[in-house]
Design goal:
- By secondary structure, this protein is an alpha/beta fold.
- It has 2 domains: about 25-280, Aspartate Aminotransferase, domain 2, CATH 3.40.640; about 285-380, Aspartate Aminotransferase, domain 1 (Alpha-Beta Complex).
- It has helices spanning about 20-30, 40-60, 70-80, 100-105, 135-140, 165-175, 220-225, 265-280, 285-305, 310-320, 335-345, 370-380; strands at about 5, 65-70, 90-95, 115, 145-150, 175-180, 200, 215-220, 330, 350, 355, 360.
- Strand 5 (about 145-150), helix 6 and strand 6 form a beta-alpha-beta unit.
- Helix 9 runs parallel beside helix 12.
- It is globular.
- Bound molecules: pyridoxal-5'-phosphate.
- Pyridoxal-5'-phosphate binds near residues 100 and 181.
- Pyridoxal-5'-phosphate binds near residues 71, 72 and 184.
Amino acid sequence: MPPELLWLSHCKDGPLPRVAADVLIRLLATELRPWDVRWKEDFLDIQRSLREAGAALFGVDARDMSLTTCTTTGLEAVALGYPWRSGDEVLIPLGEFPSNRLPWLSLASRGVRCTEVPLWDGQPSSTPRADMAPEQRLLDAITPCTRVMAVSWVRYQDGVRLDLATLARGCRERGVHLVVDGIQGAGTMAASFEGVSAFATGGHKGLLGLQGQGLLWTDAAFRQQLTPIGTWLSAPDDFSQGGTQANHDALWATDGRRLEAGSPSIVSCAALAASIRLLLECGGVAAIQPHIVRLQRALLSQLSSDAAWAAEAARLDALVQANRAGSILSFALPAEACERLINAATTQHIHASTREGYLRIAFHGWHDMGDVQRCAGWLLAG
Ligand SMILES: Cc1ncc(COP(=O)(O)O)c(C=O)c1O
């Protein structure tokens, strides 16, 4: 990244690391010579390496990983594959990104109701605070008809991080499947998938891959309940270019390939695998998350001594301390303040973003205290 540029927007788009770009360029050269492309090494093994890298980052079994194009297609594999009955219900929080809303709303034609649950009093006109109990609100909203609860782990606008362990436990106790849109936490925050049924993410934000490549993790037993999408690469054995396919009673693999579509973009798979391996070499989320929290608290501490920022800095610091924030610090500001700050940022080569009345500042593993200083200087002058 150019040294003068401060990118605080991986919540919009993660930058592709140089190592991933190098892998991509090498592979593109191969694509220009299809006669040199090897089926196993340059196709099957690259897909396998992405499933393995994703599994290592999330601390799960690679056999439970599926390649998807993005978060939405992962959620759709669940929404379209689940054995719904008319009258069933899905719960989602109020204010979800459309990826985790539209696939569930579309089930209305099959008689499935999607209910949106407010996570705190006065949402969305009031801001989230550390003493709220969003998980309890969601669990309290479960009815005898609820089959699935689908939540964003980290919310795209206000930055709230839900406690997946509490939700997963509560859902399991009530016989409900917890399905997670994980894109705003993947690559920056540590999660346990214990008790979760599915976790979908795109690869182009905190995971630092290209747009158009994502990952889906599913619990093995839950996956067998889903109708497979049904493509030729999801057969029990790897497709043989030799022409003879093994004869199986089962049509579909039982591992994560069961939920995959046909040929993936192999360059996108290789780039995302390289980006994830880099995150792992940097210590993975176990190192990245506390680093981000240090940077967030340093920024909020600087802002807290300024009268104009003190209240928001205190609200956000309480969220960070209560483990209720992800990597996005979302400052609730009047629209003209957001616009003024974004304009000032542009002249200083700083990139942040706004969503739904929040100014979003997202730190990642490569940021340092110098970046915090620069960010504070920009905000305090604005
Ligand atoms: C919470 C959340 N989910 C999903 C997405 C994107 O979905 P997809 O990976 O399908 O493009 C975004 C993008 O901003 C997001 O913030």
